[in-house]
Amino acid sequence: MIQIQNVHKSFGDLEVLKGIDLEVNRGEVVSVIGGSGSGKSTLLYCINAIEDIQQGRIIVDDIDVHAKGTNRDKLRQKLGMVFQQWNSFPHLTVLENASLAPRIVLKLSKKEAIEVAKKELNHVGLGDKLDEYPTRMSGGQQQRLAIARALAMRPDYMLFDEVTSALDPELVGEVLDTLRMLRDDGMTMICVTHEIAFAREVSDKVAFFHQGIIEEIGPPEQVIVNPQREATQKFLSKVLH
Amino acid sequence: MGTSFFTPLSWSDSGFILTGVLNTVTISLVAILVGTLLGLAVGFFRAEANKFTNTLLGAVLDILRSVPLIIQLILFSTYIGAVGHPLDPFVTGSIVLSLYTMAFMSEVFRGGFESVHQSMVTAARSLGMSYWQTVAHIRLPIGLRAVFPSWLGVALSVIKDSALVSVIGYMELLRTSEQLISRTQQPLEILIGVGLFYFIVSYPLSLYGKYVERKMAI
Question: The complex's ipTM?
């Protein structure tokens, strides 16, 4: 379980998160929606300890993420993360991209690492691209590679940071399909996304971020279909029409 | 029977010339190797260091890059002679040429490290890789690839610059040929031969560098 308790985060004088509380249970899919600069991506970076926080606590399965003694490399093994930019490692083949971290971080043997990587690459539909270099692939394929690369670490949670935002429109579908598949596998996920229809379809909970706080949270039927708060209504009417 | 003070170039000189060639190759390789390793360390340090340290270190490197190599060689060799620790010309030449090479290499590698985008590093760290694992498996290989053509350019100029080490008495190719010229009085043949040697070594390498650069641009 991921527990986010009263998290405050500032960049200099700019307070981006102003007291966030959120719980994500095992097997749950939580979508985070909201305008640019509302702090949604920052929250993911804080969960993964890429960013520090100024106040509050984030607890991932009893690990206090920002506590002094926490081994962040170890923590990140539990948390797979995929970014807006896919960041494929250009000097490695698709298979090497996905097997590197299992080999050097999880210390699997080369054979085991390749097996794990192959399985995940097959899963996201890249089984025929194993020896390809990622720079020769489309953005959608590279994003699916990024997902497989994260999955190969056998994470307990997946964090998705606007993973379709940088894609050409015709490539969005294949990546969303991959996320649907993960949901069906029972993966616990937090998806920061602009794809409102997708969020409505896959999420157990939707959180609407507005000016650094969670303005509204609840099942998609409430937050997206029948929003209670004025800010939510305004945002949705802007993005849906 | 008239004896001539000069004797023409002959096959028996080939051993002498070969020594010059080998010495040129040796000191060039030493300088490239040491300069690359030091340059890699300094370049990485500069990519990571704060502004203050960087400005300070940059000033030292600027001096090495801006003062002509021939002056550095004479200065250093004269200095260590003057303080009473004269060194073998090979050692003196290696030290100066290596440091000179390091100054250029460090900028090359610094650029390489900085060319690896922060988001790439974040992606690697998010997979649980440690700082040093990220350096070894992501930043180093990607950065090195990016700067290979520039590295090769510096390495080539080191081979050519190594001729300057002749001024402190190291028997590399140029000094060897100067001695041959004073004996044979055949400067044209000998210097053309020496020029050809440098050309034959440098030109294919520079072509290879261009080829790699083109390939990477695609």
Answer: 0.90
